[in-house]
Amino acid sequence: MIKFISNIVIASFVMASTMAFTTTTWQPHSLVSTATPLFAASTAGKWREDTTDDYSRKPLYRPQSTESVAVKKVTKAQRQRMADTILDPDFSLTWAFLALGPLIAWYHPAAADGTPSLVGVFGAGFHILFAALLWVQTSRVRCVFEKDSFTFYNIRGPRLDLSKGATLVRKPDNYVAGTENRWKYDTIINYGFFPSEMFPVICYFKETETPSWKWNRWFAAFDSYGRGQPHFFPGICNVSQFKKQMEERGVKSKPIPTMKKRPLVVGATRSVSARKAANSNNRK
Fold first, then answer.
1. Closest CA to 171 of 160, 158, 155, 185
2. 8 Å CB contact between 33 and 25
3. Are 229 and 221 in contact (CB under 8 A)?
4. CA 151 to CA 236: how far, in whole Å?
5. CB 114 within 8 A of CB 256
6. Which one of 29, 68, 97, 107 is least enclosed by Cβ atoms within 10 Å?
7. What are the respective helix, strand and coil percentages of the chain, to the nearest 5?
8. What is the SS3 assignment for 154?
């Protein structure tokens, strides 16, 4: 009995929900009804014909193409004539995290009884330790642009200075993809800097050289687009030189979407009265 009553309640709820999202037009002396979903009535033909927003009456925003393009086309023969380039290290990110340590400790003062704040101590300590790690990586890692690919090397030798006898040693295989830290220019489909090129905390690029069955490992699992293996590394090299070398060697990238420049939709827009008339005709 209880099961029978619960089935009736569920069926009534489904019928009420269906009626709430439909409009019924009754013809005189007829039991025939035409039910049209409200969302279908309000949007039928709208996305193809109406190019304005219902509320602001402004042209609808249409995203730009995200196809990967190169700043200039470069052939393999031209790349072979280019000299190998070692990017300069950049300690800006190291000094920024080092400065955040004392700032966090100052922002979280000691408690009333004179004991230091745990938030300030752990926050400052974490940023100082991370700054030390960045200083080590910036000092010993070099990004080198070669003929057909760019590679990350470690410096080994006196004072980590190439001019004083230090040498470049190839880094171990990438711990995420299990491949060499060497990527061909033709397989890179995008690159960028976050939050901006002026202050690059994270540098990013995506390539298709890594086998596709490895594309969902570690942080790559959060990439909903797929189509390649993303890589991230801190901004420990000169990103202006990095971007210049990428452009000169014809590496592809995608345009960065922005809300400042919204492309206007070309075409005539319908008036409010015409929109209402079209919606009323769709309901009939």
1. 155
2. yes
3. no
4. 14
5. no
6. 29
7. 40, 20, 40
8. strand
Distance between CA 165 and CA 52 in Å, rounded? 66
Name the pLDDT band for 13 (thresholds 50, 70, 90).
Answer: very low
Q: What CA–CA distance (Å, rounded) separates 236 from 63?
A: 32
What is d(CA 23, CA 38) in angstroms, rounded to the nearest whole number?
7
pLDDT tens figures, 32-73: 444 444 444 444 444 445 567 777 777 776 655 567 888 889
Structure tokens at 134: 């960045």
Q: Which of the two residues, 4 and 77, has the higher pLDDT score? A: 77
Contact 282, 41 (CB under 8 A): yes
Structure tokens at 224: 């909903």
As given in the structure block, the two tokens for residue 114 are: 């004179």
pLDDT at 37: 44
**Residue with tokens 């990238």, as numbered in its chain:** 253
Nearest to 181 by CA among 249, 222, 232: 232
- The structure's pTM equals 0.65
- Identity of the amino acid at 136: V
pLDDT tens-digit readout, 92-146: 999 999 999 999 888 887 777 767 788 888 999 999 999 999 999 999 999 999 9
